[in-house]
Amino acid sequence: AQSVTQLGSHVSVSEGALVLLRCNYSSSVPPYLFWYVQYPNQGLQLLLKYTTGATLVKGINGFEAEFKKSETSFHLTKPSAHMSDAAEYFCAVSPNYQLIWGAGTKLIIKP
Amino acid sequence: DGGITQSPKYLFRKEGQNVTLSCEQNLNHDAMYWYRQDPGQGLRLIYYSQIVNDFQKGDIAEGYSVSREKKESFPLTVTSAQKNPTAFYLCASSLETSPGDTQYFGPGTRLTVL
Questions:
Q1: Least C-beta-crowded within 10 Å: which of A20, A23, A109, B85?
Q2: Is A99 on the interface with B (CB under 8 A)?
Q3: Residue A70: partners with Cβ closer than 8 Å, 6 or more residues away
Q4: CB contact under 8 A, A32 and B103
Q5: What are phi and psi of A70, to 5 degrees?
């Protein structure tokens, strides 16, 4: 069965520091990959997605992610964290038309 | 503005009651989805619909029911058979059900059983 693992239910970084949120997936076929962000008591918003082509994907709010097939990973990064980045981030894979979700990582920004 | 609306934002239910959560979209999307979100867990699929008058069970359909009489509407009923309904419910839609289609989410409804 397909699965998504997000390493770390909580990640804490200082404002201005690098953000790295990890996502690994298991899939027997090349998947489509997504990162979504959720602010408290709100719905999810698409940050970025990988379908085909360039493996480095740029998204909104300065985030980017790199698809590494050999490592079955799709880690999310941002060079410099801002207080407004505090939220929960979800990685998802789409081997077909359904999404398989990771458990989420809460990003905490320290002033 | 195009988007997905869910109502109400907060809903309280007494044990034994059925309640219906509303989801409306004006994106002209064919596919719609209902997810349940519990703390520390990813989203779990309850039901999805690829087209009007058709829907399929997801991973946790027991105790829930849906209808899709109109393209823009996909209401979810939480029945008294759902043993632990307190959760955050999210509705989503996508243009089609092709692999890689982006799902767009509504703001959610928080259901609490009293």
A1: A20
A2: yes
A3: none
A4: no
A5: -65, -25
Q: What is the pLDDT of residues A46-91, one digit of tens each?
A: 999 998 888 899 999 999 999 998 999 999 999 999 999 999 999 9
Contact in structure between B66 and B34 (CB atoms under 8 Å): yes
Task: Give the model confidence (pLDDT) of B34-45 as tens digits.
Answer: 999 998 788 999
Return the structure tokens found at A101: 């979700």
**Residue B91 distance to chain A (closest CA, Å):** 9
Residue type, B32: M
Amino acid at A99: L
The stretches in chain B having pLDDT less than 50 are none
How far is it, in rounded angstroms, from Cα B106 to Cα B92?
6
What is the rounded distance in angstroms from the CA atom of residue A49 to the CA atom of residue A32?
7
The size of the A-B interface in CB pairs under 8 A is 58
Contact call for A97 and B4, based on CB within 8 A: no
Give the residue from chain A lying closest to B89, CA to CA: A43
Peptide bond just before B8 cis, omega within 30 deg: yes
Here the tokens at position A90 are 């979800």
